[in-house]
């Protein structure tokens, strides 16, 4: 990418009150080396304009673990173990919300960006508001719980020290919610179900408890079966559109790199520094998951199942961290009524540097990867937190920063938009065309 990227732009201003003007103007920005950055820039612009995308999904229902939890674990942990999770303490939430919200991140999660892109509000955590009014859940609910596993707490050989909640429990909570609705069939037909990512905790607990790679591989089919069984159960209830993420490359996670620190040199990828055998394990999970999802598609040809390839998306960033720049434009755009070439120059000059740290946590308690197995971001002793989370991939050694979540969400949304069957069932043609103009195909 050129260092003087602004010289390629003509002089034009964008009126943020005119979406069509923004779209037609931004179509000019289509130089070859920066397609992905332009797509992400478009994603940010649209997210900053509070105009809902009408005619598609009226709500989102999310299931999973801390990758998607927007506050459920806080409510559950107080009742279960009397200990508040570290996501409830600063500096969590500092980038976007400017306070802890229960998200294991400095800002927004992938599920937050997806909701924004579809013109929907952030999903309220079910366990915080389940005794309230149904109006709060009008546009969806988040059932994801930090620490939750795909496997039941009674599954032999694995102890979950964080929560007894599993995917089965989340689905049961969802069914309790549906029992309060007289229109739940129509609700499900017009909803997007985000099933995961989940299963990562089952694996991490097993590895931390000394299980061998062979032992953990043996229960991958059980993890995948839990996910697909939940999907089938929701299909029977009337759900028609699912987004199902795969596992991340866990061999690049500071938590795993710390757990297996001191491994033989030949076990590390010389380009990324990730542990190759752990990444191969993630790929094994994903391959089996995709195989089972295809079986569901064959059994239910009218059901839309979109696989979200978290693994490939994040590996692209690990392989070329300088290509994918820092994404500070949410704050940058917030107070700008018009966007001129000067603003664009400022914007691109700030995102060109890319990610400075890929394997070290921004917020942690020290060590080579700034991650300690006995501590966590937000808990004492004093947390060591970087000044610029957007230049780091990992927020706390386990979860990504908002900057990475935004990049992942962009690709996931593209995968969703490219699911023609899903769009034809749920979105009018005018909305499909609008979305395809806003989100052209990226190089990610």
Describe the structure.
There is one protein chain. With 444 residues, the chain is an alpha/beta fold. The protein folds into two domains: 1-53 and 322-355, no CATH class; 56-319 and 400-426, SGNH hydrolase (Rossmann fold, 3-Layer(aba) Sandwich). The protein has helices at residues 19-26, 35-47, 72-80, 110-117, 126-129, 167-179, 184-189, 200-208, 213-218, 220-237, 254-259, 276-299, 310-319, 329-334, 341-351, 402-417, 420-426, 429-438, and strands at residues 14-15, 59-63, 140-142, 191-195, 241-245, 304-308, 338-339, 357-361, 363-364, 384-385, 392-394. The strands form four sheets. A five-stranded parallel sheet has the order 3-2-4-5-6, sandwiched between helices. A two-stranded antiparallel ribbon has the order 1-7. The longest helix is centred in the middle third of the chain and has 24 residues, at 276-299. The chain is globular. The model is unreliable at 1-54, 327-337 and 344-352 (pLDDT under 50).
CATH topology of the largest domain: Rossmann fold
Structural class determined from secondary elements: alpha/beta
Write down the secondary-structure element order.
Answer: EHHEHHHEHHEHHHEHHEHHEHEEEEHHH
What is the overall pLDDT average?
Answer: 81
Poorly predicted runs: 1-54, 327-337, 344-352
Fraction of residues in helices?
A: 40-55%
Would you state the CATH class of the largest domain? Alpha Beta
**Total number of beta strands:** 11
Give the spatial strand order of the biggest sheet: 3-2-4-5-6
Family: Belongs to the 'GDSL' lipolytic enzyme family.
GO molecular function: hydrolase activity, acting on ester bonds
InterPro entries: GDSL, SGNH_hydro_sf, SGNH_plant_lipase-like
Keywords: Glycoprotein, Hydrolase, Signal
